[in-house]
Amino acid sequence: MRELTLTDGDAGRTSDDVLDTHAAVQSVTRHLESASLVEQPALLMRRAALTARSDLPATRRDLERALASLRDAPEAHSLRTHAGAHRLLSDCLQEQGEGQDALHHAELAVALARDSDDAASLAQSICALARRVTAHGDAARAIEILTEADGECRRTDPVSQTRIDILGALGHAHFQRGDIDAADRALLMRAEAHRRLGSLDDASADGHAALADAERRDAAWGVAAARLTLGRVALARRNAEEAIEHLLGAIATGDRAPDKQMLISAHEELHRAYEMAGDTAAALESLRTRNEVAETWRRRADDLALARLRVQGEVDLARARERAALARSERLVAEIVEHTPNVSIQGFDADGCILFWNRASETLFGWTAEEMLGETVERLFADPDELAGFAEGARQAALEGASFGPFEWRSRHKDGSKGVALSTYFPVVDADGTESFICMDVDLTDRRQMEDALRARERRYRTIVEDQTEFIVRYEPGGILTFVNESYCRYFGRQADDLVGTSFFELIPEEEREPVHEKLRRLTFDAPMRVEEHLVLAGDGTLRWNHWTDRAIFDDDCQLVEYQAVGRDVHDRHVAEERLRAALTEVQSLKNRLQAENIQLQAEIRRVAGAEQMVGHGAAFQPVLAGIERVAPTTATALISGETGTGKELVARAIHARSARADRALVKVDCTSVTAGLVESELFGHERGAFTGAHAQRIGRFELADGGTLFLDEIGELPLEMQSKLLRVLEEGAFERVGSSHTIHVDVRVITATNRDLAKEVAEGRFRPDLYYRLNVFPITVPSLRERRDAIPHLAEHFVNQFARRLGREFEGIAPAMVAWMDTYDWPGNVRELRNVIERAAIVSTGRLLEHPSLVSPAPRQSNTVHEPPARLDDAQRAHILETLERTRWTIEGEDGAAARLGVRPSTLRSRMQRLGIERPRLDGELNARRDPA
Hints:
Low-confidence stretches: 1-19, 294-302, 855-869, 923-934
Distance between the termini: 140 Å
Number of strands: 21
Strand order of the largest sheet: 2-1-5-4-3
Number of helices: 38
Largest sheet: 5 strands, antiparallel
Radius of gyration: 57 Å
């Protein structure tokens, strides 16, 4: 069996220098009896290495025990240690003839070494695997494995012991396959790697082996390549004479080889050798020869003789220079050791007496070199047990000739404080056989404090996670749970031990599993998170909706490690959303029904409005009809003026009905019925909380009339501060609700009406001139009823028919006395008053003719009747206030209001009206009744 060798990650190694293997085995066995579980794998592997060539069954038992211990406590050991154990067991099994098991353990060693990111361990494992594959007769696969590994080394670290091991195994594989030339090439590449790494003896040995093999087979290329390699090794040793000899041999043999580049390289190296020897002429000649090598190959012998003659005189000088360089190197190493920061370096003899103490040791422990030289290392140890372990380790290191460590121990400092250090000891034997040690210490005190703080934070984090109401879990890519918090356990009604190790997908309904799994597979390093809601099987056996946030966790190589998920129960919200969707569906159904009913209602309104068309087409009314026909098809603003009751609203409706907006709403605003403080809210709407009492959002009349027509009745009553805002809407089609900064754009046609003389109002400063001109685009003046008396019979007949149908009565006509009265009456209330009079007469008439005009107490235009004054003061005040209110059309405030005419405050007038029982009539026809309270 080949010699088993452990890396420093393998906890120990065998050595040919160990003279008493049996004693070493006994020492390891004694340590095993008292070793902890963490220490046992390293001791078992060390004993296996010692017994590898003498007792294979014992070696195998120790390695299998070591692997079992490593599996039981994996966190205490590195992946390098695992890989080394599998590699050693693979060698042992191969020697015992169990090739298949040996191959399996070699493959495990490669996988573990690759995960450890340790190049040396990986190289040793790959070489062991290649040997196993070769032993199975598949040298081609071994060559493929090693070639790939060599290519990776060339890209990452072309000059390393790792590549040297791989090239050695590659040469062996080529040799087993029978390709001697390829084996020699691998051997020479390994020699070159040895040379560049500084292992000149190994490089020389490889070169001589390749040279001997090539000379035996009379392979010109192999001889030339081997001599070129040996020449380079000699140059590295600064042995110019040997270098020139090998290089000249390479050139001589290279004449028969097809590789001219190798010959040129040989000339270049020869040039360097001559320069090293101080032979400038020969150096220049070698350069000229290199340039002429393509044309002639015949000047080698004379050049070699000349070079030898000139090099001989420079040999002594070169050697002297080498000795001086070596002395400088020794001084440089001493300076480096003395001033190396952060690494404490000490030297001590076999008895523990300190011989060397660098400056970093002074910084770490506090004592100066003068204070510590001659002292023992016992002074540095705070724990006697650790001191005993150190003494045993140093003795074992001296026995095996190997390093001891690294190991941690608690250190004592000059100021009395204690720390933690990581140390490694190297045994050194002088030429006279004196044994001593070199120790390198690294201070771990700050690191240990940080690790303790990190563990404390981890405990706090775990406590926080356990106290969360959300479900927090971690699981492997296959769905196997590795962590669950308490909330998750309570929700699913199981213990943590029962859940960990089971599949996350077992708690998801079968029909939901594949979609969830598919979405998890789509998570990438760049997009590692997804949010999803799906059903789960709760602990009470019901299906409930959960909201989950899954995050994929990747390592530094972008390989998926596991998932972390945070979830919560959202079943009640889902149920509420389902109910909301059902409610919205019902609302939509009701909305559709409402729209259909609205369409039907609009049609009915148009039908009813059509039944109340304007009646009477006398000459005085023709300009009104013509104006309606002209302005209706346009979008122009119309200003309708006329006395109260002349039918201004009916004109507005006629314009709307004949316009392109007839299918949309006509929205009316009576400016006299809205208080000054609420006009803006009425027109433009308001937001919730805009003012006291604004408990909800309100849509203004402009917004309601979007796409239709807005009729502003009695526009002259609009306050001045609102007139500017109305002007902006008319010009820009935009406004803001009260309490909002959001601008609303509307398409509204505006029709206004007034019974005031707006031109006079503008002149007296009560109406904005710019608004007046904007409204007065198309003026229409509706004549009073007394100006169109020819229309009274037609209107009266129309109203009689209308009220007869409504009351279910039949009238043959109007009594002549009432016709005569209507012809003589002044009609201050115009058409509205006429309509109300007809309605009252229709109600009180008992015969087939409409009569009883005395009920309306008409006042002829010319009357000589003397009225008796009221007997009581309150009756006189009541009559005077009523008359004034009728003359001002029940306008209380303002310069022309009733309060101003009566010479009292508006509040005083209102209180007197309340005391006297005076109320504004809901129908203008009731005015006459109120004039006669009896």
